[in-house]
Design a protein that fits this description.
The complex is a heterodimer.
Chain A lengths: L1 H4 L2 E6 L8 E3 L2 H11 L14 E6 L9 E5 L2 E6 L2 E6 L4 H11 L3 H10 L5
Helix pairs in contact in A: 3-4
Chain B lengths: L2 H37 L4 H11 L13 H5 L2 H6 L23 H10 L3 E3 L10 E8 L3 E7 L5 E2 L37 E8 L7
Antiparallel strand pairs in B: 1-5, 2-3, 2-5, 3-4
The chains are: A alpha+beta, B alpha+beta.
């Protein structure tokens, strides 16, 4: 089971050219994430402007969407070909940001965000 | 003469012939460019026709799928009009080490090693090559714009959709004067304009 859960990869959409930081969610993080996105109210779609988090289900993990994009206060959940935007009521974005700062690339992320004047 | 020697000689002849054809095409392109820039009147119509013939058409639908293509191809892939499905880094295909410092000098050298040709932004590219522009947010990130066949410019900031507008939402007529400050939405401020380059068929990215 741990192997299956290990295929949920998070990408911090931070750069235009350079490779974005990525990390793999632990089994506990996957369960918590599923809980956080399970009952969010729907919202009007908004395009991704710059920063965001891309969560990809590479190995068809059961009961997990194919793709989730968290950005600008929205949680866009994709199952198959259908994407539905939801309001980020549970602060999924800041939860993922904390994960990013604690990831092995946390030092680089902190440095870049501080350079851009983003509070961390 | 042994069979092996004959085969080697034949291979050499083929290589020589291919090299000659490549040199001939390069010369022809240079000649056409020279003709376009100096002999024929460089009026707006001529410039328009040149860009119309050589630059890619703006086709955001081919990039903005809100899925694998959009999220796995970066600004450099978009500028070179190639979809390898990874964030291609200037210099990787050309054998230049991936730049460690984010500045114009490093990324210019890296891009040139991939086959991009540095050009004055106000001059035309060789025939059937099109123009792209490199900008840098020093110490943070690099970014590319590409000229479309209608003369305006477009770009694809990382995993976000390809657009033909700048940070203020205005159409991009010249990347040198476009608003490149994305700090308002948590992005970089591309303060350094590094220069323009031509993308020809020989460009490779990885």
């Amino acid at each position: 089971m741990a192997y299956v859960d290990a295929t949920i990869e998070v990408t911090y959409l931070l750069f235009s050219g350079r490779p974005n930081p990525t990390w793999v969610m632990s089994a506990e993080q996957v369960s918590r994430f599923k809980e956080m996105i399970s009952s969010l109210p729907s919202a009007d779609p908004r395009p991704l402007r710059w920063q965001g988090f891309l969560i990809q289900n590479y190995n068809d993990v059961a009961d997990f969407p194919d793709q989730v994009v968290v950005h600008d206060g929205l949680v866009d959940i994709t199952c198959g070909r259908e994407t539905t935007p939801h309001v980020d009521e549970n602060n999924v974005e800041s939860w993922l940001q904390n994960q990013a700062l604690e990831s092995p690339m946390g030092g680089l992320i902190r440095e870049i965000l501080q350079k851009r004047g983003v509070k961390v | 003469m042994s069979q092996e020697a004959k085969a080697r000689q034949s291979d050499e002849r083929v290589t020589e012939r291919n090299g000659f054809v490549k040199r001939l095409i390069r010369c022809l392109r240079r000649f056409l460019t020279w003709l376009a820039e100096w002999l024929l009147p460089l009026g707006p119509f001529w410039r328009w026709l040149w860009v119309r013939l050589c630059s890619p058409s703006c086709n955001p639908g081919a990039w903005n799928d809100n899925n694998g293509i959009q999220f796995n191809n970066n600004c450099y892939n978009y500028a070179c009009n190639i979809q390898p499905g990874t964030f291609a880094q200037p210099g990787t295909a050309g054998g230049y080490n991936t730049p460690t410092a984010v500045n114009c000098d490093e990324y210019t050298k890296a891009a040139k090693s991939d086959g991009l040709i540095e050009v004055d932004c106000d001059r035309l590219c060789p025939f059937c090559c099109y123009k792209v522009a490199l900008v840098v947010a020093p110490g943070d990130d690099f970014h590319w714009y590409r000229q479309e066949n209608n003369g305006t410019w477009s770009h694809k900031p990382g995993g976000t959709p390809a657009v033909n507008t700048d940070a203020s939402g205005n159409p991009i007529t010249d990347p040198r004067t476009a608003d490149r400050d994305y700090s308002g939405v948590g992005g970089p401020n591309y303060t350094a304009f590094c220069g323009c380059f031509c993308v020809c068929s020989c460009v490779t990215v990885a």
